[in-house]
Structure formats: structure tokens, C-alpha cells
Amino acid sequence: MAKKMTVSEAMRNRRTIRGYKPEPVAEDLLQQILETAQLSPSNCNTQPWFLTVVSGQARDQLEQALIAELIAGKPPEPAFMSGDANLEGIYRERQYACAADYYQTMGIEREDKTGRNQLMVKNWQFFGAPHVAFVTMPLTMGPVNAIDIGIYLQSLMLLFVEHGLASCPQGALALYPQPIKEIAGIPEGHGILCGISFGYADEEAKINEVKMGRADLQQSVKFVS
Q1: How far apart are CA 204 and CA 207, in angstroms?
Q2: For residue range 28-76, what is the model confidence (pLDDT) as tens digits?
Q3: Range of 200's domain?
Q4: What is residue 2's DSSP assignment?
Q5: SS3 of residue 117 by DSSP
Q6: Contact 80/180 with Cβ under 8 angstroms?
Q7: Sign of CA pseudo-dihedral 2, 30, 26, 21
Q8: What span, in angstroms and rounded, lies between the C-alpha atoms of 89 and 215?
């Protein structure tokens, strides 16, 4: 019997993947993963998450519609405050460092605005992944409920790793909700928190050479006794 992957191994192996093979994930495997992710804990067992998975022709249609929004210069209309809003201090520094590592790996200079924009557009092309899912919750809910969504997302991403899949959680996919509402049909009264592109990683893709570090434990944890 093959040795099962531990949670620690899944944590160490998981990373954001931005280059995918076109091969789709088998429906029965995806069903199994999502059923297990549904076991995620939540406050008072409210389970506020809703996941809309888009594949095949609908996925391609949605990509075209989102790119059309960008070309038309439509202003972003996120339902909730974006994750990079109001960042200050060390948090803004980490964001800048993340972007610098990303562009450097791809050979894009800081002054190359065209190259940076082309790389950014890949977000709305789902980085070539055959599947994209949109994570929503009721518009009446707030940050505390979003904690449960984060728990669910972590469960989902680790389960992907366990089954040999890769993923990329994307706040950018919450910026242009109208085409998603029209094509994917998210639940009425829900807002998009983020999207997550997923599938099988293309290990040969240069974009997947990007690897981000983490802060030292002392910067994030305090022990009191």
C-alpha cells in the first residue's frame, strides 16, 4: 500500500502554480475532493462558503468575457474590500517583494510596464488552468464569516496537493463580477471573495519557477507564559 501524504507534507509541497497542462481533472476525483473539503469547520457550523466550478466551454467563454472587460477599461467592482487595500508597513513591503520576485523570475524589468501588464492579464486567463472556481458568500456577511471561507480554501488546496493537483487562489478574479454572474450564475445575494484556478501543474513552465519565502516565526507568533 502506498504511503499516504501527511498534512505536514501537503503544507510543504503546496505552492501557488501559474502554469497548467490542458488535461482536465476527472469528475469523480473532483467530486471526492470537494466532498472532503466540505468537512471543513466553521463558526456555529454555518458553512458560509459556496463554490461555483467552471470548466470546458463555459470556462473559455468566461475568459473571453473577462478579457473584454479589461480591454474596455471597465473599473473593478469587487463585492468585498480587496486584500491589497490599505496595506501599510511590513505588509506592503511583503507585497512589493512578492511582485519583485515574480517579475524577476519572468525576466521582466521594473520599467517594463507592457510586460508587467501582460503578466497580470494571465489572472483572467486562469493561467491556462482547465478549471476555475469562484468562492462566494452572502453579501450580508463580513470578515468573521470570511475566516470560515479561508479555512475551507486551505482544506481545498491541501486536498488538491494530496491528489497530485495544483491551484492558484486569486483575489483578482473578484474584481469583475458581472461576466461571472452571467456565465457562471453564482447564487443570488452572494458576492465573490476570490477565485481559484486549478488542474495539473505544467512543471516545465517558467512561471512555475517562482517560489515565495515566508517570514520567520518570531515575526508572526508570540509566546506568553
Answers
A1: 9
A2: 999 999 999 999 999 999 999 999 999 999 999 999 999 999 999 999 9
A3: 7-82+124-208
A4: P
A5: helix
A6: no
A7: negative
A8: 14
Which residue, among 130, 122, 219, has the nearest Cα to 172 in the 3D structure?
122
Q: How far apart are CA 142 and CA 147, in angstroms?
A: 9
Count of domains forming the chain: 1
Does 3 score more than 80 pLDDT?
no
Query: Which CATH number fits the domain that encloses residue 154?
Result: 3.40.109.10
Asked, for residue 220, whether it belongs to a domain, the answer is no
Q: Cell match 516545465: residue?
A: 204
Position 64 in a domain: yes
Contact 20, 210 (CB under 8 A): no
Q: Cell numbers 486551505 label which residue?
A: 154
Cα separation values, 46 from 15, 18, 38, 93, Å: 29, 32, 12, 35
Distance CA(192)–CA(148), nearest Å, equals 14
Residue 156 has pLDDT above 70, yes or no: yes
Evaluate whether residue 116 is within a structural domain: no
pLDDT at 2 over 80: no
Place of cell 488546496: 157
Q: Is residue 160 part of a domain?
A: yes
Question: pLDDT at position 220, please?
Answer: 92
Identify the three-state secondary structure at position 205. coil
Distance CA 83, CA 135 (A): 14
Q: Position 12: which residue type?
A: R
Helix 89-105 and helix 113-121, axial crossing angle in degrees, nearest 10? 90
Distance in angstroms (rounded) separating the CA atoms of residues 25 and 5: 20
Q: Which helix (H) or strand (E) holds 199?
A: strand 190-199
